[in-house]
Design brief:
Helix content is 81%, strand content 0%. It is built from three helices and no strands. The two termini are 33 Å apart.
Length: 84
């Protein structure tokens, strides 16, 4: 299979799966929790902080992560706009 054919096969599978899914939020809840838990582990690997302080620091870590993604996206868009 070519890369394009593999991509199309994967897209068909994803569309089929979502067509059978009643509650999308519930379907992705476990993955979302794991993703967010990663920030709590990052800021408090030994579990020494209070839950409130851990949550506050994890929120800052999430904001830093997403701001970094936005920066990389901005740089990439700017690079594509430059004339060759």
């Amino acid at each position: 299979m070519t890369p394009e054919q593999r991509r199309m096969r994967a897209q068909a599978g994803a569309h089929s799966m979502w067509a059978k899914t009643g509650d999308r939020t519930e379907r992705t809840a476990i993955a979302r929790k794991k993703f967010l838990d990663r920030f709590e582990k990052q800021v408090d690997p030994n579990g020494e902080l209070t839950p409130a302080e851990r949550a506050k620091r994890a929120a800052s870590a999430r904001r830093a992560y997403f701001t970094g993604l936005a920066l990389r996206s901005s740089v990439a868009r700017a690079a594509r706009k430059k004339p060759a």
